[in-house]
Design goal:
Ald_DH/histidinol_DH; Aldehyde Dehydrogenase, Chain A, domain 2; ALDH-like protein; about 35% helix; alpha/beta; five-stranded mixed beta sheet; five-stranded parallel beta sheet; oxidoreductase; Aldehyde_DH_dom
């Protein structure tokens, strides 16, 4: 929702253009809510076409004194804080940059940009624009089409990546994408089962599975399948998602939005309806909170196997041979 005058006691995130912060040219803002408590945590400037053009022009002007490399446009999605490092790579390579922040976490990215300006980065080299979810498609298209933008980096879902790639192709602009994944872990029958289970659980449950390289698929040989499944259920069963600030027994956060949690739950429900066994988990959600789930008997063709869940979910398939395991690991659209 757009508002014109946010309360002064709520943190604000402004645009960074040409080394200075500023409100949107219309003074419009959008609210960002804590997905757990559903309270407003920040009010952020919602950029306009004019603001986006100013940011790109600032980057284009700055690169003449930075390095002779073209401006790049970057878009961030809500993954873990490592995303802030993605901004630095184009800068180190000599680019000037316009960052289009995620509408879910614009303030954290604004803080990172502020720190870089405090460290002395030159005006216009790093610019930050935020915008409401409703305005993002139109403005993103305009930014991609701006002739000063010569390269595009995008971190986010593969579905949005395809849209951006198609738009960039109209102008033959190169892109670098970091999209979703469905990382497999292959466990053969000579493996150390406790160590394998610990590694899988860490890879799957870190940040509640909200990592593009999260371990989402487990392929295990039949002779040790029962033992590995039992170990994974024991480890993940000791984890608890919820309010980690007020409940010391909680060690997993909620998901970044209720819609994401709803998508994860529907993926689990579809798999169970198609014959998968839910070894761990209550198949419920509390707003944006999903407890760890472990499923076995998941097969290609099920969304739980084919598509990134981006949640605290492990799916397991059992095979007989190493060749089967390798084939199944490689049978992915990612």
């Amino acid at each position: 929702m757009l508002v014109a005058q946010p309360s002064m006691d709520i943190p604000r995130a402004l645009l960074w253009i040409n080394g200075r912060t500023r409100a949107a040219s219309t003074n419009h803002t959008f609210e960002v809510h804590n997905p757990l408590r559903k309270k407003i945590v920040s009010v952020c400037a919602s950029a306009t076409s004019e603001d986006c053009k100013d940011a790109v022009e600032a980057a284009a002007h700055a690169f003449t004194t930075w390095e002779q490399v073209n401006p790049a446009e970057m878009q961030s999605y809500s993954d873990y804080s490592r995303r802030n490092w993605v901004k630095k790579i184009p800068l180190i390579c000599g680019n000037t940059v316009v960052v289009k922040s995620s509408e879910y976490i614009p303030r954290s990215q604004a803080i990172a940009v502020e720190v870089m300006h405090e460290a002395g980065i030159l005006p216009g080299v790093l610019n930050l624009i935020s915008m409401s979810r409703e305005n993002a498609p139109k403005l993103t298209t305009e930014i991609i089409g701006n002739p000063h933008v010569r390269h595009i980096n995008f971190t986010g879902s593969d579905s949005v990546g395809k849209i951006i790639a198609a738009e960039a192709a109209k102008y033959l602009k190169p892109c670098v994408f970091e999209l979703g994944g469905k990382t497999p872990a292959v466990v053969l029958d000579d493996a150390n089962i406790p160590e394998a289970a610990q590694s899988i659980a860490l890879g799957a449950m870190l940040h509640s599975g909200q990592v593009c390289v999260s371990t989402e698929r487990v392929i295990v040989q039949r002779n040790i399948a029962a033992a590995l499944q039992s170990e994974l259920v024991a480890i993940c069963g000791r984890l608890k998602a919820g309010d980690h600030i007020n409940d010391p027994s909680v060690n997993l956060s909620c998901l970044f939005s209720e819609s994401s949690a709803a998508n994860v739950l529907s993926t689990i429900e579809e798999a169970a309806s198609a014959g998968a066994q839910v070894l761990l988990g209550d198949m419920k959600r509390d707003g944006a909170v999903i407890q760890p789930h472990v499923l076995s008997g998941v097969k290609p063709g099920m969304r739980a196997w084919d598509r990134e869940s981006f949640g605290p979910v492990i799916v397991i398939a059992v095979v007989d041979t190493v060749d089967e395991a390798v084939d199944l690991a490689n049978a992915s659209d990612y």
